Amino acid sequence: MNKRTSKTHVLGEPDQSRLLDTDVGAFLAFLTVVVVGIWAHHGGFNNLGLSATNTATSLDQITGLLASESGILGLILITRTPMLERRYGLDRLFNWHRVLGASMSIFLLLHVVFSVWAWSTPGGLFAAVKSLTGGEPYMAMASVGAVLVGVVTITSIRSIRNSMTYEMWYFIHLVAYIGLALSFSHQITLGADFSTDKLARWTWVGLHIVVVLWIIWSRWRTLILSIVHPYKVSAVSHPAPGLIAVTLNSPVISRHRAHAGQFYLLRQLVPGKWWKTNPFSLSSVPSSAGLRFTIKSRGESSDAMTKIRVGTKVAIEGPYGVCTPEIIGNEPVLMVAGGVGIGPIVSLAENLSSHHKPIIVYRAHSQKEMVHVEEIDALMKKLGGQLFTVIGPRAALKVSDPFAAEVLRKSVPDIADRVVIVAGPESLIKAVQKGARKAGVPTDRIHAERAWW
Ligand SMILES: Cc1cc2nc3c(=O)[nH]c(=O)nc-3n(C[C@H](O)[C@H](O)[C@H](O)COP(=O)(O)OP(=O)(O)OC[C@H]3O[C@@H](n4cnc5c(N)ncnc54)[C@H](O)[C@@H]3O)c2cc1C
């Protein structure tokens, strides 16, 4: 726990999102009606089936518009707008962003195919390619844009992505912004949708301006503010080999709002490291004594974090995440942590009361890797809760699957009545979800913050 004195206080909570699924559905439906309406209004439906050229032109138009719509929606999802993030969580938003990115690429590919088909009719394939890669105004830019989006798509294929570092993949991914910007002008000047229809043109331009301002305000402003007003490392401790507990503080921390269980993107503001950012969870209730993170060295960036010194400036983006006390409410709770996943579980446990009858299951490979055990013991004593540990390599465990339904039911007989929270590696999350579901816990009462990469 952070060293708290009588003067320290738990930070205020972030506002709840008032966004409803129906609001999101209505926005999606509205945008799709606008897109399909623009296409239909300019002969899209009528041209289908008239002749091969007309059909190709019509399909060329609608696939182009749908590619843009998918791109716009995908960009909105990664603005990290608090209203969206607090409602759905960053992991889900990033996953939907990925689905929309894939949809955009498919529509874009179809758009290219139908464009070449439509333009081939008068002068042949060679003339079509020539016009579409530079002959027509802004088409050279659009072609470069399409190639850039193609590069981002290919490098996002899981097997290719896994062969790169996160940072390399991320910076290649940013090229998609340039690709989309380059393709914008040809949408306005070419084809019947916008070049001749003032209202449609300004609706489309206006929509893009709103999205650009949205990205600048929500994403880039937050990023810049995090760098301009950094936190500083106020304390460090090494609770186990290769692990660090870092406390960050700022003179204005009292104004900051965060929930136990949430996470931040941390960026060390030191030469050579400032461009790397990694997600880490609060491992103590956020208070005016500071924000504590427990970090394990897993790769280059997290290793650098485990060597951080008191006084280092750190830019923080967040808080993010929806695994907060709100999802527990007043229900009894079972929390399962794997390895360093114990961090968010400790911060959530600090927030509980005895009526939550908390049970914590802590899975670790060895005793020496276990951290914050004294804190958990003290908390469980105070709350009348229980701590179970599952220690050792898998092969050495008494049971082959410590999270099988029958094992969970034996240790936690009332598991079906509990909210289940799990934090740790993906394999552990999946095992607990499967076991808990089979043991009778409804899916919507099992919560986990997942990695999004
Ligand atoms: C929501 C969330 C909360 C987390 N909380 C903690 C915590 O409290 N303590 C802790 O020790 N670890 C935590 N992690 C994991 C931690 O972020 C990774 O261990 C760390 O990013 C490893 O990065 P690396 O560059 O050192 O290692 P690498 O070997 O480069 O990366 C290891 C793996 O980490 C992931 N990763 C790397 N960089 C990022 C990034 N910027 N964004 C997303 N994933 C990335 C990738 O899946 C990669 O395969 C959390 C992860 C997530 C998603």
If you had to describe this structure to a student in words, what would you say it looks like?
- The protein is α/β, with parallel strands linked by helices and 453 residues long.
- The chain has three domains: 21-221; 229-320, Translation factors (Elongation Factor Tu (Ef-tu), domain 3), CATH 2.40.30; 325-448, Nucleotide-binding domain of ferredoxin-NADP reductase (FNR) module (Rossmann fold, 3-Layer(aba) Sandwich), CATH 3.40.50.
- The chain is built from 16 helices and eleven strands.
- The protein has helices at residues 21-41, 44-47, 52-77, 82-88, 90-135, 139-155, 158-161, 166-189, 192-195, 198-228, 300-305, 325-328, 342-349, 373-383, 405-411, 426-438, and strands at residues 231-237, 243-249, 263-268, 278-281, 291-296, 313-320, 333-338, 359-364, 386-391, 419-423, 446-448.
- A six-stranded antiparallel β-sheet has the order 4-3-6-1-2-5. The protein has a five-stranded parallel β-sheet with strand order 9-8-7-10-11, sandwiched between helices.
- α1 (21-41) packs antiparallel against α3 (52-77), α3 (52-77) runs antiparallel to α5 (90-135) and α5 (90-135) runs antiparallel to α6 (139-155).
- It is elongated and about 80 Å long.
- The protein binds flavin-adenine dinucleotide (FAD).
- Residues 165-166, 263, 277-281, 293-296, 298-303, 340, 343, 449, 451, 453 line the site of flavin-adenine dinucleotide.
